[in-house]
Amino acid sequence: MLGLAAKSLVPVRKEPNETTEMVNQLLFGEQVNILESYKQWYRIESVIDSYPGWVDSRLIEIVDDSNTEQSLKSFTTIALLTETINLANNTKYLLSPGSLLYGLSGKRFHLNGTNFEIVGQTPANNTQSLASVIATANSFLNVPYLWGGKSIFGIDCSGLVQVCFRTAGVFLPRDAWQQVQAGQTVEFVNHAQPGDIAFFDNEEGRIIHVGILINSNEIIHSSGYVRIDKFDHQGIYNQQQGIYTHKLRIIKRVL
Fold it and tell me: Which terminus, N or C, of the chain has the lesser number of Cβ atoms within 10 Å?
């Protein structure tokens, strides 16, 4: 059974309980396969990245018409914080970058038969450009780190990478250890380009952090909050602390 994230943000939890760990978030319009229901909860798997978890069923709309399913194959991914109005009840939604708009025409789009209208600027159509990735990343500056977060109100390191590349039409897996398997390896740091993805490991060699290079010696990443730090062949250097905070493992190019 197919469902849609029908609110601005849908928490995905480890277990079917509001007090359990949030492991992910769904942005508006994201499609999910509903695998099981339990009380008011759905066990789901994201269509985009196959990420599993439990969501409150009240935040999901069921897609039960084959024609509607066909219409979900074409969407626009927004790169800016966007205010919209649900035309059925005149209520407002604030959509985070990475949200999906179906059937966008002018300022109007739809979600499962409900029409919406954008307030203010209309998001541009998807463009596979590094400029889009970096511009979106910069729009997240100072957003606090949130484990499992994927929105402008709180985001983790791999969520930042996933959302920014989604705005350029590149759909990466959810977690850093999965993302490192994508793209081509950049063999030398001095060959790295803006938009390349840098991965960092711990003493056991496990990938634990990820960020986006914005030039040859700076990286944007979510660590405490989304910030820009110095970067070189050793890793991420925090000038305020005067130390390297993350050890470089590998650089990958996906766009």
Answer: N
